[in-house]
Protein: Peptide deformylase
Organism: Terriglobus albidus
Amino acid sequence: MIYPIIKFPDPVLMKPAEDVTVFDKELKQLVADMFESMYEAQGIGLAAPQINIAKRLCIIDLSFKKDPAQKIVLINPEIIENSGKQHEEEGCLSLPEIREKVNRAFQVKVRAQDVEGKWFEIEGTELLSRAFQHEIDHLNGILFIDHLSRLKRDLVLRRIRKMQKNGEW
Ligand SMILES: [Zn+2]
């Protein structure tokens, strides 16, 4: 099933999500539906709050369907290590049309559970590191625009308000 993507400023995007505690068939179905919804929306990352499910679960596929080995499911993830810096452009399915450069760690190591509840660690640099940080932020109620300077963030909010007024949001 394809879920609609929740857009800013829906409150579900601004609050911390809850731990996943049950690893059952329903969870596997939810993960499958999240991939379907993400591909439909042309995304490479999606967090459960973006489909109105306030749970600590996110998915990433930088290959966009091309390489099944690149499908990543992170349940109850935590960043346990980070190093370096990068400053690259990001976008978000919940903030269509908005793209801004964001300060991120160059490398992160994440600890998470898989769909069976088994803990694992995964590391990423560059784009994968950005995706980890962006998606895990979603689980903490943080959006990429929250990392911008006050001035830039205000400009973005103004742009969104204008689009809302014109019925383009
Ligand atoms: Zn996002």
User: Anything to note?
Assistant: The chain has one domain: 11-165. Residues 92-94, 134, 138 surround zinc ion (CB under 6 Å).
